[in-house]
Amino acid sequence: LNAFGDSGPWEKMPGYEEVAQALTGMQVRYGGKEKPTLWPYGVVNDYGTGFAGAYGVLMALLTRAETAEGQHVTSALARTACLLQSTYLQDYDGKVWDEPQGPNTLGFGPLQRLYQCQDGWIYLGAKTSSEVAGLINTTVNDQLEDKIVHWCANHTTEGTLQHLSTDTIAVHKLTWLNEFASDPALQARKLIVTREHQKLGLMRTTGPGQWFSSSKIHAGRPAPLPGSDAKSILDEIHMQNFDELVASGAVKIPQERKQ
Predict the structure, then answer these.
(1) What is the CA radius of gyration of the chain?
(2) What does the pLDDT look like over 172-183, one tens digit per residue?
(3) Which of 36, 55, 137, 161 has the fewest Cβ atoms surrounding its Cβ within 10 A?
């Protein structure tokens, strides 16, 4: 796992999350051409490259089980950044490079964007203009986006959710992170967990969630303080070495000590 892959002129060059973002246009996508900005949602390429590497190892193991042949597995930050932006990297005759950019972007168009209501924001995701237009009593025309903006501005978020949600239209209230993390349903599914930290006390973090119907996944303990595991690790190493010495006969234990 590295920054730019296992071949080519950049193979040995160092790189970080932010370098992969700069190389692949992520910072322009978020901040816009006038003021490129670091991707603000965490180290997506760092984590994604780790997941890609683990997935690659699993695929290699399956192939080895079928063919008895081993192989080297690689993954790179730049590859992950391209994968995450695959929608934007498509090119074809007549392609217009007019994707939304910058921090003020509300969406991709009238059927996929954020709208402000009287008491908050909602995100609307729909397939056809006609269905949305019918729900807000207007016609499909060039002003549809403005019509939806006006309609939402005169309704509450709850009223908008009830009125616009259908089998083919997805609408959801814009939720603040703390509100999202406090949702009992997410906590019940272990997507949000609370554990005791050595220094901070009770600490709420993301959890592994429920991935499998039978196999159980448990959240590990919070990251320990530096040095706090030193004694247990040294004790474990000491006992392992001691047991090896006894097994080899280099150390003799009196019978009474064994008892």
Answers:
(1) 27
(2) 999 888 888 888
(3) 137
